[in-house]
Amino acid sequence: MTTGISTGDVESAARLVSFGMRPKQLPSRDVVYGDLVRRYGEDRAFKQLTHAVAAGLGLMVLEVNLQAGAVLAATDESVFEIKMDSYARQSKIRERRETEKVLHGLVHLATAALGYPRPDDLANDTYIGRVSVEQVDAMVREACRILDERAAEAEANNDPLADAPELEQAWRAYARRPAAAATKDGRLASDTTRGMVARALRFLADQGFLVQVSGEQGGTYRTTPRYQVQVRELAADAAFDDLLELNVVSVANGGGTLRAAASDTL
Length: 266
What we know:
By secondary structure, the chain is mainly α. Helix content is 51%, strand content 12%.
């Protein structure tokens, strides 16, 4: 770190980090935020200082630009890390067993894969994906069907899959749950798979990753630049590639409207 750093520089760097912790705040809507983002891109010392301030808080700077703002990720054991139990409380998950946690992980993985099914989508900063509750549910169900077929074939060949037992339990548990059922007041029952997906998408919207555009298909959302940055990180995960390789995602047209390949059968 250079020696010419002032307390004002540190305060500005900390302020940029604090803007990044407000998921719905955008540089285009705040002059101070926009100025700090531009300074980050132009001033190498300020960029290094911002990363140092973030690291001291247990955060990693993924990206800083005028479209997404400051996009941060919590490092392991950071006080800002969203643990699964914390997510469960925020999204009102009734059960917090390991299988339930894996189910919600599958939902978030499917949402990311539907939002950006092609490498070009992630590379294109102007790309906007769309996902809906019905599409995500259909994709996970189709993935579960394919995994179940593979497991049955492997068992028939006396060659059981090497997947973790928790994952096998998860896809079978998801497939057994009803897709939809209405409560007495007409809402989507929370113990259905679409109820689970709806909570996950609302959570992502609260984090500034999605924006709801309509109530169709159980709720339809568009992706944001902030989410694109996060999914670029997720795309390095082997589980993301495994899900895409199941070939249950297809692009319906050139306009960026995405659907699950199995959705027409539901």
